[in-house]
Amino acid sequence: MTITSASERRLDRPGTSGLRATFFGVWFVDLVATVLFFTVPYAYELNPVTVFLYDLFGLAGVVLAALIYAGFVIGIGYVLSRPLDVGFVVSVVVLYALFASNNVVLLVSREPLLAPIVP
C-alpha cells in the first residue's frame, strides 16, 4: 500500500495550454464588455453577483467578480480528472464566447445578438 501526501500529489492543469489561453482570451473580452455595461446608459448587467460587487466597490467590483468566476472555472478544472476537465473547460470557453460575442454586439449596435423571448 502506497500513501502519498498532499505535497507529493500534483494537480493536472485542465486542458491544453492553447485551451487555457483561449479561455483567458474570451474571459478578458467578456470582462471588458461587462465593465463597459456599467458605463453606457443603454446596456445593463444581469448577473446579480456582479451588480452587488459593483454597488460595493465600483468598477473594481466588476473585475473582482470576473476574477472569482475565473478562479472557480480553473479550480473546478484542476479537480476534475481527464477527460472531464477538458470537456468542462471547452464548454466554459464556448459559453464565454457566446456571451462575450453577444455583449460586444450589444455594445456596438445597441441590439443584442440573442434577444430574450417575451410573450
From TrEMBL:
Top-level taxon = Archaea
Give UniProt keywords alphabetically: Membrane, Transmembrane, Transmembrane helix
What are the transmembrane regions? 21-44, 56-80, 87-109
Q: What is this protein called?
A: DUF5658 domain-containing protein
**Species annotation:** Natrinema salaciae
